[in-house]
Amino acid sequence: MAEREIPFRDRAIETASRAEIERVQLAGLKRQIAQALKTDFYRGRLASAGISSPDDIRTLADIRKLPFTTKGDLREAYPFGLLAVPKEEVVRVHASSGTTGTPTVIYLTQRDLDVASDTMARSLAAAGGTRHDVVQNMMTYGLFTGGLCFHYGAELLGAMVIPTSSGNTLRQLKFMKDFGTTMIHATPSYLLHLHAAIEEEGYRREDLKLRMAITGAEPHSEELRQKIQDKLGIEVYNCYGMSELNGPGVAFECVFRKGMHVWEDRYIFELLNPETFEPVPEGETGELVVTILCRDAMPLIRYRTRDLTRFIPEPCPCGRTHRRIARFTGRTDDMLIINGVNVFPSQIEEVLLKAKGVGANYFIIVEKEGVLDKLTVQVEITPETFADDARVINALRDRLKSEMSALITINPIVEIKQPGSLPVSEGKAKRVDDRRPKD
Ligand code: ADP
Ligand code: ZN
Question: Would you tell me the crossing angle of helices 145-157 and 110-126 to the nearest 10 degrees?
Fold first, then answer.
């Protein structure tokens, strides 16, 4: 790697001393507290924690006095409970993938959007992206941040951005060839799918200028990265983000690809024991809890991401002082990520509870089919419905399927089961079997 120049977007801040980073963090935290105090949601909560002014925060350690914020809180505050600026200042709204029930939304001012785009551009630059790149964004455009938020960052970098969005693999390939795409953004599963299509369609490696892929949105292993790199003959960079934190680019790999740098001038990252909420010892796994330091429209304090990871204690050879996190090892809740879309078993249950003719028992199976994830929902129906004719049962299956896909935005397979045929577990019901290989 020595012969390769290490790229930076903003070398001064990316290599700042710990003291300087902490100075920026303290100023940012005070500023966010000032914003939070303007929201209906935080005012009362901060008061209960003894905080009524930004000056009540004296050192970074004071963050430990602040209340946590959860996804449930965001749903409760929907739509405008967390708004800290006059509504006219908001220029953009996004929402978490897969949530069409009560969504978790974020809103951004123009300045917020500029900062978010800059963070994304910085991430791409760290991975060696430049204005010479032709970037094809294969993540879904719309409320999901993987589309537009990534797009704006890549444009700010100066790259030529092609917003193909997800799906339509043949068109993706045609654009990759015709425009000389050098960088793509897609989920790991889609990258494998793309590779299969390249082979099937008979593209030769020299038809494509592809040199790197940015991937994220779902857990994947180092082995899978290697596999994608080998198959496509490119470098693959891991990217972490979530809509609540302005989308992708919250943590990103530099050219060394040994863990993701977290951008500590833009966020404060804590790793806490999810039961005691005490910080875990350096190098141990904990839940990532994140405070945003630069978002005027919607402050977010100590947000519980539910994602489990650890800090990598050694300094990175790239010279960046912002710490690195390792690959995620799981979550502290039951959220499933299916083809990049967040799905909670409770959303499936919600549909079943409302439906007539459905019994009490159901079972969710997630499997790999080829390179993509497959979701099957097995549903027990009532004895009366079971005794009905096949047309009634088929109609019920179709209705459940369409109601579920409307709610979770992906199409499940619904299997109707005879009453009493699904296993009944003693104690806490086990309703999900995630059969996907762990690597
Ligand atoms: P997105 O899917 O765009 O990252 P969402 O808000 O829909 O945003 O989902 C966020 C969740 O996706 C995270 O909490 C995390 O569980 C998962 N995720 C995102 N990026 C990664 C990644 N690089 N590795 C593992 N999981 C990831
Ligand atoms: Zn690095």
Answer: 70
The residue with greater pLDDT, 439 or 383, is: 383
Which residues fall inside 5 Å of ion ligand 2, going by CB?
Answer: 254, 316, 318, 320
**Where are the strands (E) in 15-163, listed by range?**
90-95, 105-109, 134-137, 160-162
For the CA of 244, the closest atom of ligand 1 is 6
Domain ranges of the chain: 1-333, 336-434
Yes or no: is domain 1-333 CATH 3.40.50.12780? yes
Q: 342-356: per-residue pLDDT in tens?
A: 898 888 988 998 899
Q: pLDDT digit string (tens) for 63-75?
A: 999 999 999 999 9
CATH superfamily for 336-434 is: ANL, C-terminal domain (3.30.300.30)
Report d(CA 249, CA 251) in Å as an integer: 5
The DSSP symbol for 323 reads -
User: pTM for this one?
Assistant: 0.88
State the ligand closest to the CA atom of 94: 1
In this chain, the answer to whether the domains covering 1-333 and 336-434 adopt an identical fold is: no
pLDDT, one tens digit per residue, over 289-318 is 999 999 999 999 999 999 999 999 999 999
